Amino acid sequence: MSITAAGHTKLKDYLQGLIKEGRYVIGSTTHTTPIFKTERSGDVITFYLYLPDGVSGTITKFQLIDTAGAVFDDQPDSISKPGVNGLLVAFKYTLKKV
Questions:
Q1: Rounded to an integer, what is the distance from CA 1 to the centroid of its chain?
Q2: Of all helices (H) and strands (E), which one includes residue 18?
Q3: DSSP letter for each residue of 24-87
């Protein structure tokens, strides 16, 4: 027996509603940022974080935080961001029915 189309849609709805905010780390300081945008296309859900002009430094980690305040996804990185440019970060998930 496989999951129904309605069940598959509910799983995508749940994931989309589970993510509350983003975080990024510069040096030893963790900063919180709102979800800039969420896109859903078929089985793909993409969460975007946007770091505006004025944020600068070497970013060593990006995270998605769930509604309970726990880290849902933790992506180490090393990006040197100048303060004159914005930065768009994408977390992309595919929920496939197999």
A1: 32
A2: helix 5-18
A3: EEETTEEEEEEEEEEEEETTEEEEEEEE-TT--EEEEEEEEEETTS-EEEEEEEEEEE-TTS-E
Token pair 């189309």 is found at: 5
pLDDT in single tens digits along all 98 residues of the chain? 688 889 989 999 999 999 999 999 999 999 999 999 999 999 999 999 999 999 999 999 999 999 999 999 999 999 999 989 999 999 999 998 77
Tokens of 27: 């040096």
Q: Give the range of the structural domain holding residue 64, as residue numbers without chain letter.
A: 5-94
Tell which residue, 83, 90, 82, has the closest CA to residue 45: 90
User: CB–CB of 97/9 below 8 Å?
Assistant: no
The predicted pLDDT at position 17 comes to: 96
Q: What is the DSSP letter of 85?
A: S
Number of independent structural domains in the chain = 1
pTM for the complete prediction?
0.92
- Token output for 52: 């505006």
